[in-house]
Design brief:
The protein has 15 helices and no strands. The chain has a domain of about 180 residues: MetI-like fold (Orthogonal Bundle), CATH 1.10.3720. Helices cover about 75% and strands about 0% of the residues.
């Protein structure tokens, strides 16, 4: 070995540092040490995926609310008629000067772009405007009527889920005759109009049997018939989706393995198959819950219940546009919140759908 080669070898060894020399000693048989691969990302490395999912959800929520607010403002501008005349009522006779003063106070004499900016600024402050007919803030009116509607909607969704799970679990994988019989009532429930079903239940259980009150929202008894009216069509749809999911899950290899271990059908469905089949059920439940506000309009009218449905029906009849727009924005907000809750439930039911795993 020449002196130049020895010097070069010494320099290359020193340039690797102490870690290189230790690795060279520890390597068995003088073999070269294996190159260190990239470290596996731990839990902190998942945060970018979670942050991206949260930011994507926030951007989507802002876009939905902005679109709903813009469409509501456009509808307000395109509706024929003078809002001041609607505000004063058809029987009121006022001079043009007074009407112009009211129009100036409400900002209707300003350009549309300026009105739109003031409108968005009010929404950011939580100001939905003033009711034409009741002369009260729309936010207060919706807040007063939101409680009974939420109570009715949640009761209907819970009852629908209970009926759907019982029906699907009892008939999934069973003989075709039993499944066909169950599908008949589901089809009838889905195709029955809610207002007609409400009238039938009201006639039978309130007027004839006197088991439930005819109208009002006082107590649990007054909630039973409206909740059943809303729940039966939902239950029919949810049961069909859940049954298909259960039958698909029961045919998977994991179900065969669980049966081979001697596990009974009830345990297999409750602990394994139901969780696999619940993802499409959660999706459909979220969508139906968000659209349930339209169903409460008819049901609250049939049973004489207070709520957002009755409020928006009265506003439509009296052309109280700010109230209608406020309810539209409330519906958009509900869809955004429900979508976020559904995404969270996805990760609980199936951890593979966790957005934090996207960076792995």
């Amino acid at each position: 070995m020449t002196p130049r080669q020895a010097t070069s070898g010494t320099d290359s060894t020193d340039s690797t540092g102490g870690a290189g020399r230790v690795a060279g000693v520890d390597a068995p048989g003088g073999a070269e040490p294996a190159a260190a691969g990239p470290a596996r990302p731990g839990r902190p490395a998942r945060l970018p995926g979670l942050l991206r999912a949260v930011l994507r959800r926030l951007v989507g929520a802002v876009a939905v609310m902005f679109g709903a607010a813009t469409l509501a403002f456009a509808a307000l501008q395109l509706i024929p008629g003078d809002p001041v005349a609607t505000l004063l009522g058809p029987a009121t006779t006022t001079s043009p000067e007074v009407r112009q003063m009211i129009r100036h106070q409400l900002g209707y004499d300003q350009p549309v772009a300026v009105q739109y900016l003031h409108y968005l600024g009010g929404l950011l402050r939580g100001d939905l405007g003033q009711s034409y007919q009741l002369q009260r803030p729309v936010t207060d009116l919706i807040a007063e009527q939101l409680g009974p509607t939420v109570q009715l909607a949640l009761s209907a969704v819970l009852l629908a889920l209970l009926l759907a799970v019982l029906s699907a679990v009892a008939t999934a994988g069973r003989p075709p005759a039993l499944r066909a019989l169950t599908s008949v009532w589901e089809l009838i429930a889905v195709s029955t109009p809610s207002y007609w079903l409400g009238l039938v239940l009201l006639t039978a259980f309130s007027f004839q049997l006197h088991l439930f009150p005819v109208a009002g929202a006082d107590g649990v008894a007054a909630l039973v018939l409206p909740a059943v009216t809303l729940a039966l069509p939902l239950a029919g749809t949810l049961a069909q989706v859940l049954r298909e999911g259960l039958e698909a899950a029961l045919g998977q290899p994991f179900a065969v393995t669980v049966r081979a271990r001697g596990v009974g059908r009830a345990t297999l469905v409750a602990r394994h198959a139901l969780r696999h089949a619940a993802v499409p059920l959660v999706t459909l439940t979220g969508w139906l819950t968000g659209s349930l506000l339209g169903g409460t309009v008819l049901v609250e009218s049939v049973f004489g219940r207070p709520g957002v449905g009755s409020l928006v029906l009265s506003a439509v009849n009296s052309r109280d546009v700010p109230v209608v727009i406020g309810v539209v924005l409330l519906s958009a907000l509900l869809f955004v919140v429900i979508s976020a809750v559904v995404d969270l439930l996805y990760t609980v039911l199936d951890p593979r759908l966790d957005p934090r795993l996207g960076s792995r």
